[in-house]
Amino acid sequence: MIEILKNRQIILSLIILGGLIFMAVFAGVLAPYDYKEKDLQNRQQPPSSDHLFGTDHLGRDILTMVMYGARASLFVGFAVVSVSLAIGVTLGVLAGYYGGWLDEIIMRLTDSFLAFPSMFLALAITAFLGQGMENMMLALIAVEWTVFARVARGSTLDVKTKGYVRASRWVGASNSYVMIKHVLPNIISPVLIMASIGIGNVILAAAGLSFLGFGVQPSTPEWGSMLNAGRTYFSTAPWLMFFPGLLIMMTVLAFNYFGDGLRDALDQKMKNLELEGRF
Amino acid sequence: MLKAENLRCVYTSGLIKTVKKTAVCGVDLEICPGETVAIVGESGCGKSTLAKMLVQQLEPTSGEVFFDGTKLTGMNWKNLRKFMGKIQLIPQNPDDVVDPRWTVERSVAEPFVICGGFSREEISANVAALFEEVGLSAEHRPRYPHELSGGELQRVVIARALTLKPELLVCDEATSMLDVSVQAFIVTMLKEIQKKRGLGLVFITHDLEAAKAVSDRVLVMYAGEIVEEGKDVFDRPLHPYTRALMDAVQYASLEVVLPEDVGPLPDGFSGCSYYKLCRERTEACKESQKLRNVSERLVRCWKAK
Amino acid sequence: MSDVLLKVSGVSVSIPTGQGAVHAVDDAAFSINKHEVFSLIGESGSGKSILGQAIMRLLPPNAVFSGKVELGGMEISALSEKEMQKVRGKTVASIAQNPYLAMNPGIRVGTQIAEPMRAHLGMSKEEAKARTCRALKYFDIIPPEVREREYPFQYSGGMLQRAMVAMGTAADPELIIADEPTKGVDVLKKRNIAAIFQKVASDGCAFLLITHDVGFARAMSDRIAVNYCGQIIEIAGRDAFFKEPLHPYSQALLDAVPERGMHPIPGSSPSMIEVPEGCRFHPRCPYKTDRCLTNPPVVKLEGRCVRCWIYA
Question: What pTM, to 2 d.p., does this model score?
């Protein structure tokens, strides 16, 4: 673990992510205003010392809304990815381990999900289920789990052929024992890398859906819906879109960076092991 | 103790045009308690496939394996579980057999955990005793596989194989990737363990000198068949193939022989499988060869006297 | 001493890792004469492969090298990388362990063999092709005109091994370095490799065989060097060495060979990061005394040398 922290990419992204999470958790304490507080006297104020990020068309403080928005976005990101990961990894491991008809069914199912463009699928599901945060999350899970199923199945196929799996079976271990004790720990690193990148993707997709009006209610602060609200005033008050957009970009970049860095670090760890193995 | 009858294994591959490759054809084998049997042959002669069939990791295409009179082949996994600890395989590549994310101690303890019925203290005492038996110290126990050398790891694998008090160990090229000094150590240790526990030992190797040094009885395999079997095979080789192996070990004649260049035997050829390479072949070798009993030896060659 | 081909003096290589520097080669000194087969034997992890890489200047980029390597009177350890490229493959060639990894699967075998001829001998395409065919025929890859146009996957394992030797010898090198040519190879194939090497050696090419296979080294070599924990501890003529090895480690190593009863060496190989003080073999040595805690001298005795206090 300590070796992973030597990677610069990881440290940089961890600092950004730590800041974001801190901001989201302590939004109530840190935010200079209340996000519901409308100040119709000060509508569409440009950034100033009173309102660092300016105010929107109802006079709400953008900085405050962006902070509360981090809550919604990060929650959606983590929740969607955790559920997708659980579903995807379970199905992927089962498919990879048992193979045969089970593999066929599960993989054809993921293929049929993958056959649709992901945004289109999410749109269709939210349109069908109706607007709202829960429905949006369901839609995103439906898109996201296939990634984990594929990765988990691929890695399981590899681990399955290892001697320790056969050796474990050969002293009488059950299939479920082997899957939990041997397969899962050995496929977890590629899955975690995918999860990190996946959170970024989900946040982006959630913002997109909210922007299109399928996600979070406009009354709750969320980066995507803030973008949508600010769209009308873009020519007169560009800061309405600039700050939430910047935050989305930073978050997604940080998660992707973290995923990349994690992969490099794990690869490097493997390389070091090999190198040491030569002596 | 272990008895194999007419074991045969055919691999099929290819989607459109199926290719059948016979890896092992009709091997009979018997191993008694406390006995060391060496199976030698070049790579690709089917000795590893035979090993996997003996330990039931591979279902033979036909033929049967008996353990103390009980038929193991065709048995379902639940019933087979009772026999699993009794026959253990020690493979060539030890780092494949231990989970890289487990400490070696946990890997050795795993069979106890899976079998159940052991308390935590019993397990750790047993594991400590096993580590001692294979000559590893307490400081090796909490390490991970990548922190051990190949020889140490192979000892961990042996310790693990010993957990369920096996009666037969099948070593598939267990020492051929190791350095001579480590190989010597492992082989000496295996022989000591065998003496102490009265194990049967099947030693599969391409290293004839090692086979000669450890075994009571030797089986020479060629192209999936046993071509010679007996006690003093290397002192008095009767089959031409065994003689060729002996020459190779001593680097006797350094002219290039190209066994891989002769190509497969023609379809429908039922004669001696060594026909194309044999320097002493005659017309009579085109007849199918049976294992014959020649002066306390089984030889698959009509010429042997 | 005009017949010295390769002279290695005072070569040390250390490679930094996460746990500290690995002292893979320490103060290696030996020389190989023209037309001589010289074997470097030792256990895996004793740094013998690194020494081979150091001579070829193919060390990992973070390795720290010091010392002097002279080839035919030229100090190749001081050459620039560009100049070294002209030497590599021409005067000194290496033969890899695994023919499947060493040959490019997408290029015809003939083209791969012809490459060193075209690069180093400046041959035209036609000349190189004719010579490639001769080389293939020499190594019993027949018919050469057909085989020359084939791809590596069409070759059998043994043929590919021979093709690889043909590639190594294409530009008529004076020295061939073969790193573990017999690792994981069964007796019959081992004998075939020995036969091809013998054939090349009988044409006057010198060999540096890096191997852990004592039997192979015995069958092939004129002189033998034993490597233990990064140091060369004994150099001797083949017959003298197998008749009477001097260093206690050499004795123990030979006793561990199956033909001599498989007596294990007590203890285990030391770590290459924290090497034992003084003589590196002393923790496992049956003859150790107090002076073994200080560095033993390299003692020269009638054509052989040994790094041990017993003979000082």
Answer: 0.83
